[in-house]
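Let's study a protein:

___
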Amino acid sequence: MASGAIIGVVLVILDGLRPDMVTADVTPNLLAFRSHATDFVHAKSVFPSVTSVAAASIATGELPMRHGVMGNEAFGGALSRDRVLDFRDHRIVRGLDQSLSFGLVTVPTFADVLAKSKRRVAIVDAGVPVASSLLNPRAARNGHWSFSTQGRDATVTPHVWDEVVRRHGFPPERELPRFDEVRYAVDVFIKDVIEGPARDVAVLWLPEPDATSRYRELGSLESENALRHVDRQFGRLLEAIQRRQGLDRTLIIVASDHGQISATGTVDVAAEMRRAGFKAGDRNGLGGADFVVTGQGYGAIYSVTEDARRDARLVDWLMEQSWIGHLFSRAEEAAGIDVVEGRFAGTLSHGLAGLGHERAADLVFTFGSSKGLDRQGMPGRGGHNSVSAHCLGTHGGLNAMEMSTVLLVAGLGFGGGLTNQAVAGIVDIAPTILARFGLDLGANTAGRDLSRLVGEAADVPNRGGGEGVLANSDRRAGRWLPSGNGRGAAA
């Protein structure tokens, strides 16, 4: 472990945080941290820009075409032929991990690599259980420590749940905004992880601002207050790290899994398809369907049986719909990210969007979106599949505000108060963590160690400031080393 630190790497994920939400008024501690970190201002999520896919990419450093998690829902192939699987249900994720030969995530995670070197990983998850389940799905086998506020059944290592509840009591009842749950999770993270036994990597996943934004408008007072609360808890966490070992001896990564936009309207895609004469089903029922629709802030359509003419008619109909944005289909042959055209004329290839995996739906689409302002004056608006009852804030597509993520890195080798212009993203988190211990995920991984991005773009001083817990800390100098290839999802 570098510099004799007790905690080597701390990764904090703030679900759905857009970079423009980090302001002096709402998030002074995050803003202060940014002025002492390197800010990767062009950081991007992956497509579909939803938590399940993003969590798997954070864990593996790979695009969906390699790790196999294609959305928040799935259908077909070896996964399921009789119902739509919702990955927000931890029982489904756990069942697939047990029934599939390697599990739902088809490539090693950073936790798997660390386990082989006898390195210790601890995770506290206050988001949806799929976050910790996908970050370290083999935590029990790896001998790691994982806790979810969702319950014992949602915790990958149930004995950890028992230990935490004995020390802290049961997590509070879930409410919106998630003030109490977030505070409880941070209490556990500080007491049991930061102040507990030595760990090589410690991960905290918090559900805000995504949770409240789904039920309140982006930029609303409720959403801002949820983020204010998260920021105060983040300040507590930094103070705890400083007390334990000093911030300058810890690699700290603060990131979001995706951004979000405001829903301008909803489309019940399966219902629209049925009105157009197609036999379509969704999570509410299949009923002899020829096509099955999944997804919410994006769309995925599976053909139940092969019928090239019927599929072509559907593609023609989809391209006439005003609510369609991009439309992706499988290429005629297996293709990578450099193949542009899909199987059907006018469509883009799965590979171009990082979706070239056997589990991918036959057709994947985004809803039409724009950079227009919502009622709160925040940019980013788009459509949503109305199978979800709540969609004020939405994500899943390729809108710039859905794909833009926060990515701040502070610690040895990372300059303080710098803005880095290189192409970067959530796929770079796992390689960066492993590089701290002289480890990697192997050749041809999509992500790269962020400390090796100098030379792709210049670092310049960032002008962020703010009065937070780091306001009086000394800046640390740092420099970049040459890097890799800059591959990423379509943006």
Observations:
- The CA atoms of residues 119 and 200 lie 6 Å apart.
